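Sat 14:20. Reprocessing the chain from the morning session after the first attempt stalled halfway. Input below, unchanged.
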Amino acid sequence: MRIPFIVSTATALTLCAGSAMAANYTIDPTHTFVTFEIDHYGASTNRGRFDNVEGTIEFDRAAKTGKVDVTVGVASINTGTAGFDKHLQSDQLLDAAKYPTARFVSEKFEFKGDKVDEVKGQLTLLGQTHPVTIEAEKFNCYANQMLQGREVCGGDFEFKFDRTKWGSDFGLQWGAPKEVKVVIQIEAIKAD
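Finished this time. Tokens:
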């Protein structure tokens, strides 16, 4: 039996501008994915990713402030197995028909020096909203030569959560775990 999860990441994610004023960024869907991992009875780890992630980030590096608004399309889950994807989308788990998106919204960034260390915000999933803290594992900004030198910022972020807080209790009676790990790979492009 397999159990999923979703995050809107999002998702998460914070980006770095070199100016003293807030800059706006748009998430690059070709470099942004939200992945879940959940234990499968101690024998293996079930994994899947959400391929549809979009959103915006406002970031002021000098003031060390920012805002994040990221939405994940629940039906875009991709485990590599069509039958498992369908099961995860069902009303037993993610209920994609009733709740087609998950969303992460934040106005609280924590820094270590000039780098984003944590993003604290609210995750809405299965119609419920609860706080989560997403930790930065890696973070950087660079001039993307394929985009004519436009600034791109991004990183790898992750967090763990108890899925039952959002009402996901499928399989608990059979010993399925509550804890889900979410790994977020994100890059965002600074607006012109």
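Residues 56 and 131 are 19 Å apart (CA to CA).
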